[in-house]
Amino acid sequence: MLSTYTYPRFAYRPPAELQGGEPRRYPVVVVGAGPVGLAAAIDLAQQGTAVLLLDDDDSVSVGSRGVCYAKRALEVLDRLGVGDRCVDKGVSWNVGRTFFREEEVYNFQLLAQPDHKRPGMINLQQYYLEEFLVRRAQELPGIDLRWKNRVVAVRQNEQPGERPGVGLQVETPDGVYALQCDWLIVADGARSSIRRMLGLEVEGQVFMDRFLIADVVMKADFPAERWFWFDPPFHPGQSVLLHRQADNVWRIDFQLGWQADPEEEKKPERVIPRIQAMLGDERVFELEWVSVYTFQCRRMSGFRQGRVLFVGDSAHQVSPFGARGANSGIQDADNLVWKLQLVVDGKAPESLLDSYAEEREFAADENLLNSTRSTDFITPKSKTSLNFRNAVLTLARRYPFARALVNSGRLSVPAYLSKSSLNTADRDAFAGEMVPGAPMADAPIREDGRDGWLLDAVGNHFMVLCTVDHPAALEASAAAALLALAGGPFGVEVALLALQHGSGSPGLRVLEDRRGRYAERYDARAGTVYLFRPDQHVSARWRCFDGAAIRAALARATCTLAEEKPL
Question: For position 315, what pLDDT does the model report?
């Protein structure tokens, strides 16, 4: 009954640099071929930048590790070309249930609204995600993916007369070679060796508790939901989490307490009785992977260090409750790459990269706050805290106010970058959540008679979207003014969002609001204009078209207009 997954081995090839000569120089080097590093490399390659991607291993991660991928991450993976593969293989779910002892006290729906392309969450073993991303990277000619290449030294070029950049020493099975790059993206994980080489630290809190992860292969008719128990009879005084994954693999997390011996707890003779107590002696199962972990809520003080840019776990670490690790790391890459691409192309100043640090440090703090609150609720450290938690769980059976206090892990949601220096503030009145800085909400659309989705239609470039009752209502002068915004150094696309079906407008792309969700979610009516960023956040919005205002907003979003305010 064991999982049928076979871990791939990727071929090591001796790098050309080992043949001698001057160190080669690359526009961008990415270190770490996990989900975040692969996402960054694929995004850059798709936009035309050659990328060197280094990894010290030659396979994917062992064990399920990151399991839950939220709707926002799936939307990014769509743009990287692997979204369908992930959703098709993974287990989609929207419902979570929380139990206190033997009784359900709380449940939630991740997607309360209909008409979204992607589910609230999928469960998928990290090795599948990594393999899908590797296969995608291998399809792209712009990525040089080198296995068994370990960075052993790193140095920023800061001496007078040196060309700005970063120098690396890389160790391979055939020897050590040197290279140079203009920009270095660090995605080498929580124990980042590059962070250590540069003498940089992460700061925050390490929680004194231990948890056992067991990946169990079994056939079970449990629904595809997240189940979390506080103080269950089969594991008294502790917590347990159950998730279904692909291939009949079930992820079970057991809280152990700080005094547990990690090596002893990983032994089958310790793990199997715990699972039998939970599932019953009659349940047939096999262990696929076991690990014991502690967790921490920490981050670097600055994600940009000159020409070295930290993403994912190398920059910030959170507890696993809430699925905020890989999801936030994928969003780091999504935020960084479009900005770095503009800088590499010479279309935006280097200061645009400061906004990566500004925005994603804000997002990391939000994740750390929510993760810490979840951890404090799940693992109370005093008798008073335990009594409070148990009282909340008891009251939650009957009272809605108490359910709002139940915290078995606030699940990953994208950050609203509403105070970003790249935003243009509203000058007109709007309702709803699509404020400048908000992650875009999806909506069903129709284009050229084919049904589709808004986020797929927007893609990964700047877009100006002007709402009209129907395309024929747009005057020729207005169409000409819109077309004048198209293209330019930032590759802006201009399109119409039609509230009603009608014939198209010459020269302009037309998206129809298929079920009225765009008008509802964006508080849009005829004349409403939105400017969207390449990472699908709202940049600005207006009630009527103003070409000069749109150009100013675009300049602000690319740091080609000088005026900044702190987040």
Answer: 97
Contact 181, 169 (CB under 8 A): no
Contacts of residue 508, Cβ cutoff 8 Å, sequence gap at least 6: 471, 474, 479, 482, 483, 494, 495, 496
- The Cα-based distances of 496 to 210, 253, 476, 503 in angstroms read 54, 48, 13, 12
Query: Mean per-residue pLDDT for 491-513?
Result: 89
User: Is it the case that residue 516 has pLDDT exceeding 70?
Assistant: yes
Handedness of CA 183, 187, 190, 193 (dihedral sign): negative
- Other CB atoms within a 10 A radius of the CB of residue 386 amount to 14
Task: List the Cα angle 82/87/91 in 5-degree steps.
Answer: 145
pLDDT at 376: 87
Query: In whole numbers, what is the pLDDT of the chain averaged over residues?
Result: 93
Distance CA 28, CA 185 (A): 7
Does the pLDDT value for residue 1 go beyond 50? no
Q: Which two tokens stand for residue 533?
A: 């960023």
The answer to whether 166 touches 154, Cβ cutoff 8 Å, is: yes
Say whether 241 sits in a helix, a strand or coil.
strand
Place of tokens 């986020």: 455
Query: Rounded distance, CA 40 to CA 138, Å?
Result: 14
CB of 308 within 8 A of CB of 184? yes
* Residue entry with tokens 């800085």: 437
Distance, in Å, from the CA atom of 208 to the CA atom of 379, rounded to the nearest integer, reads: 9
Q: Which domains does the chain have, with CATH numbers?
A: 16-91+119-200+302-361 (3.50.50.60), 444-557 (3.40.30.120)
Contacts (Cβ under 8 Å, ≥6 apart) of 144: 50, 51, 52, 53
Give the number of residues written for the chain: 567
Can you give the C-alpha Rg of the chain in angstroms?
25
- Is there a contact between 101 and 231 (Cβ–Cβ < 8 Å)? yes
Count CB-CB contacts under 10 A for residue 511: 21
How far is 261 from 438, CA to CA, in rounded Å? 44
What is the full DSSP assignment across 458-479? HTTS-EEEEEESSGGGS-HHHH
Output the CA–CA distances (angstroms, integers) from residue 249 to 6, 123, 125, 164, 216, in the order listed. 14, 10, 9, 48, 5
Average pLDDT over residues 30-58: 97
Report the 10 Å Cβ neighbour count for 120.
Answer: 22
pLDDT of residue 567: 40
Q: Both tokens of residue 378? A: 């799940």
SS3 (DSSP) at 300: strand
0.85 exceeded by pTM: yes
Nearest to 152 by CA among 194, 198, 96: 194
pLDDT over 50 (residue 565)? no
Residue with tokens 């980042």: 192
Query: Cβ atoms within 10 A of the Cβ of 437, count?
Result: 22
Q: Which two tokens stand for residue 402?
A: 């108490």
| pLDDT of res. 412 | 79
The predicted-structure confidence for 131-159, as pLDDT tens digits, reads as follows: 999 999 999 999 999 999 999 999 999 88
CA 293 to chain centre: 22
Average pLDDT over residues 22-34: 96
Q: Which amino acid is at 293?
A: Y
pLDDT of residue 564: 41
> Is 564 exposed, middle or buried, given 0-12, 13-18 or 19+ CB atoms closer than 10 A?
middle
Whether the per-residue pLDDT at 210 is higher than 60: the answer is yes
